[in-house]
Design a protein that fits this description.
265 residues, 6 helices, alpha+beta
């Protein structure tokens, strides 16, 4: 990756898609896009004065809560692209940030919108620091990669599955009445600098739940809700649900839902 640079209210970075961020068809993995987005968001926020280092002094931190990624067309290994990001100010408790990944011709190939909160690192509760709010211009005029904020994912009720065509599956596409698709223990490779599971790892787990014949098709839209952080040694129970070409994956620790992923192929 090249250094992040500023173009007006947007920050951008040139990237050549590496082989380790692609799948068996040499397409960019959804989780890899999330890795790119996290890194440029960190640098952009730092340049604007409310990045990781600034918030950490006050024992606060950014936490991603929701994201919607729209894939216009698959990107391939060795494609040269430019990733743009910009913040869109506050909306209720959320701070909004958009992303636009463009190819060498300038055509948009991946668009995303994300919703963030600031939490107290000790209490894990949401906060709204006054010094952060003062840095956000309420009259700022920006465009939208995706106009609507990332949606709250709602799983269909279990007793409506037969009517809606919902199918519970386990790895390998075999049906399983219990709905369990597997279990993942949070380990070294899952953790980020805050000591909990990195955002992109949830997408890795979700995609790994799905049958190969499904993931052989390109993803069109991916939505994710982060509800409760997972920590080292947590056993995360994963359940996949299919509704036509849309797949839902729920991750739970005990009885508590930690994340939801909705993927449209």
């Amino acid at each position: 990756m090249t250094p992040v640079r500023r173009e007006g209210y947007k920050f951008c970075q040139d990237i050549c898609i590496p082989c380790y961020d692609t799948d068996a068809r040499a397409n960019l993995r959804p989780s890899a896009f999330m890795d790119f987005a996290q890194e440029i968001a960190y640098w952009a926020a730092s340049e604007l004065g409310f990045g990781y280092d600034t918030l950490h002094v006050h024992h606060t931190a950014w936490v991603l809560t929701r994201m919607h990624i729209h894939f216009e067309d698959p990107l391939k290994w060795r494609d040269n692209v430019t990733l743009y990001t910009w913040h869109k100010g506050a909306s209720g408790l959320f701070y909004l940030r958009d992303f636009d990944l463009r190819d060498a011709s300038g055509r948009s190939r991946v668009k995303a919108t994300s919703s963030w909160v600031v939490i107290d690192e000790q209490t894990r509760r949401m906060v709204r620091p006054e010094d952060l709010q003062s840095l956000l211009d309420p009259d700022m005029k920006v465009d939208d990669a995706i106009p609507e904020p990332a949606q709250k994912i709602v799983l269909p009720k279990r007793d409506s599955r037969s009517e809606s065509g919902m199918t519970v599956v386990e790895s390998g596409m075999a049906e399983n009445n219990s709905g369990m698709t597997g279990e993942h223990t949070v380990s070294y490779s899952d953790l980020d600098i805050n000591g909990h599971t990195n955002n992109s790892r949830y997408v890795v787990w979700a995609m790994d739940c799905l049958p190969k014949e499904v993931t052989d098709s390109p993803v069109k839209d991916l939505y994710i809700n982060f509800i409760k952080e997972t920590l080292p040694s947590d056993n995360v129970q994963l359940t996949a649900l299919r509704d036509g070409s849309t797949w839902f994956v729920e991750g739970k620790v005990g009885e508590k839902t930690c994340f939801l992923v909705k993927t449209c192929f």
